[in-house]
Amino acid sequence: MTTPTSRHTPAGTAAPHDWLLDRLSLYLRRAPDTIDPTVPLAEYGMDSVSALSLCGDLEDAFGLEVEPTLLWDHPTVESLTGYLCAALPGMSERLR
Amino acid sequence: MPQSDFATFTELLRTRTAELADQDVHIHLRDTRGGVRAEHLTYGELDRAARRIAACLQQYDVARKPVLLLYSSTVEFLKAFAGCLYAGGIAVPAPMPGEAGHGKRLNRTSAVLKDSGATVVLTETTGAPEVALWLARSNRQDAACVVTDASGTADPADFRPVAARPDDLAFLQYTSGSVSEPRGVMVSHRNLLANQESLRTVLRTTGEDVFGSWLPHFHDMGLVAHLLHPVWLGSHGVQMSPLSFIKRPVRWLQAIDEYGVTVGGGPNFCFDLCVRRVTDEQVASLDLSRWRLVINGAEPVRADSLRAFADRFAPAGLRPEALYPSYGLAEATLVVSGGTPGTPHTERLFDQAELERDRVAGAVAGRAARTLVGCGRPVGLDVRIVDPVTHHELRPGSVGEIWVRGASVARGYWKRPTESVRVFRATLNNEESNFLRTGDLGLLDDGELFVTGRLKEVVIINGRNVYPQDLEGAVRSVSPALTFGTGAAFSVEADREQLVLVQEIRLAGVTDEGLRSVAQRIQELIGKEFDIPAGNVLLVRPGTVRRTTSGKIQRTAMRELFLQGVLRGEYEVLTPDVRALVRADDELLGEDLLRPEPVEGVRPW
C-alpha cells in the first residue's frame, strides 16, 4: 500500500509533492487538486491518527525515520514538501 | 492452584511465577530500524526482577503508598508493576510525560503526579532523562526517581515479603476524569481478583489462550484484560506500542497470526483503521482463523464497523462470530458485560424517536431507526437501569442510567471521599445501597445490555475520553478576543464521532481573515494538546452559547441546535461529513434564507 502509484516526475521537488498529495488525498478523503498547499492540513480534518499513518508511510517508502510531531512542525503541504526535499536529497531517484 | 484460593493478586503472582518459571509471561514487540524485535519475559525472570525492584522500593517505605510507573516497554512495566505489589505499594500507571499532552498546563502525567501525591517514580533507562527533566520542571526534585532496569539497583535476596490484605489497593487507574480534575480509581486486590474471575466466566478463557494487544498499559482494558488476565490464567500476552499500531495497523494482525493470538481487542476505531489501511495483498497473507475473541469495547460499538471488519478479514479466515462487543469501565475494574463466545453478537433495530425520549420500541417501517449492538449479559455484577434523577429503578423497556453493584466495583476515587460516596455508593429505590453510577445510558432487553449514550458530557474520540471543560478552557486561551466568551464542546455522530467546538468571540475590529486565523489556531492547539482532531469550529456572537441560570453551559442544548442546523457561526469550518449532516438544506433553500438568523429565539425548521 505504501508504493506510490502515480505521476512521479524524475527530479526536483515535484516528486515528493505528488507522493505527499497521493497519501494525503487518501487520508483526507478528498481529491489531490482540492488540497491548497498553503492551508494547514488540520483545516481539512487531518487528525493525529492520519498524521501518524503518514509517518509510517514515510518510513516504509523512504526509510526515513520521522518524529511523530512532524505535522505539528510542518502543518502545510508546502512546508512538508520543503522538509522532505531537505531530508531526502536523493528522494526523486528512489521514487522511480 | 485454582485462582479462587488467592486472597491477593500478589499471592497469585508469587505462585504463578514459581509454578511456571520457564514459561513466557509476556512478549514485547519493539519497532527497530531492522524491523520488529521480540523481547521475551518469563515468569521466573518476572519474579526475580520484581523481588529486586521490591527490595529497592522497601528502602523508600512505599507500603500502601502510591508509586508512579512511567514506561514505554511493557516488559519493564510489568516487572515494575509486580515489584510494586511485592513491596506492598500502590501501582499508578501513567503515560510517559512526553506522550501525555504537549502543553505543560494539560499534561496528564503531571496531573496524575499531583493528584496521587506519589513521592517515588519508577522508570527505565531510556526514559530516565525525560522523567528527570520533567520532575525538575514540575518542581518535584523531592520525588525519588528510580531506574528499574539498571543493574545494581538492589539485591533480590534483600526483599522481605509483605503481607497484603484483600482490601488493600493494588493500583490506581487514572483513565477517568478530566485532565484538570483527574480521578484515580482505587482498585483493591479483591476488586481485581473478582474482575479476573468475571473475565474468565464471560470470555471462557483458559491457560491455553494467547493475548495480543496494542493498547497502552495505562489504559484499563490494556492493563486488566491484556496484561494482567494472562498472568492470572498462567498464560502469556504479546504487546506492541500504540504508536506502532497506528503507524502500521497490519503489524497487529501479523502478530496475531504469528503468535497464535486467540483473544485481543480494542476500541471501535481500531477496527475501522484496520479496514481502511490494510491492503488486499496483506489480507491475503494473513491467517486470523485462531483469533476467537475480537473484543470491541471502551468506546461505543458500531454495527457497521463490526460488519466491515468481518467482511474485510473473512478471506484471512476470521470467523464473524469472533467479533465480541462488550461493556466495561475502570470504576468496575473493567468488564461489566459481554456476549457468549462462539455465537454471533446481537444487533437490534430500535425506533430512533422513542430512544431519544428514553423509551424502547422496535423499529417501525417508515420511521427513522437506530441499530444498536448488544454488549452481552452482565457478569458477576448486579446491573440495573435507573432514573438518574429519582434514583428509582425503571420498568423494563426504558432507557436509563446503568447502575452496577458487586465485588469488582472499585473502592472509590483516590482522595475524593464526597464524590466517591455519590458515584460508588448510590442508593437505589431508597433501600438498596452500594451501587456504582456509571454515567452511561442504556437498556436491558431480554437480559442483554445495550448502551445508548452518556449521561455525562464526555467526548470519546479515537478511544479517548476528553472532557468538554478541558477543551473549552484551552480554546479560550487562544486569543484575547475569546477570553470573555463562553464556549461549548460536544461531539456529533457523522460517519464517526466528531468534535464540535462552539466559541463566542468579540467581533469588534476582527476581520474575516482574523476570524479564520483564530479558528486555525484553535484547531492547531486542540490537535497539539489533546491529540484529537478539531474538524469543526464555529465562532459565534457573544450570547449565543446557552447557559443555565447558575451559569452551567448547556452543551446538550447547543448540540441539538447544531444538529437542527440553526446554530451557525460568524465564521465556521466543518468537515465534509458534518457539513452534509447539518447544512444539507442550504443548497435547497439558499444559504441566505437561513443566515444570519440569531440563535436566540430559535425556530425549529
Automatic annotation (TrEMBL), chain A:
Coiled coil: none annotated. The keyword Phosphoprotein applies. Residues 14-88 form the Carrier domain. One of its GO terms (molecular function) is phosphopantetheine binding. Keywords: Phosphopantetheine, Phosphoprotein. One of its GO terms (biological process) is antibiotic biosynthetic process. InterPro entries: ACP-like_sf (IPR036736), PKS_PP-bd (IPR020806), PP-bd_ACP (IPR009081). It comes from the Bacteria. This is Carrier domain-containing protein.
UniProtKB/TrEMBL annotation, chain B:
One of its GO terms (biological process) is fatty acid biosynthetic process. GO terms for cellular component: plasma membrane. One of its GO terms (molecular function) is ligase activity. InterPro entries: AMP-bd_C_sf (IPR045851), AMP-dep_synth/lig_dom (IPR000873), ANL_N_sf (IPR042099), FAAL/FAAC (IPR040097). Pfam families: AMP-binding. Coiled coil: none annotated. Residues 37-414 form the AMP-dependent synthetase/ligase domain. It comes from the Bacteria. Keywords: Fatty acid metabolism, Ligase, Lipid metabolism. Belongs to the ATP-dependent AMP-binding enzyme family. This is AMP-binding protein. It comes from Streptomyces spiralis.
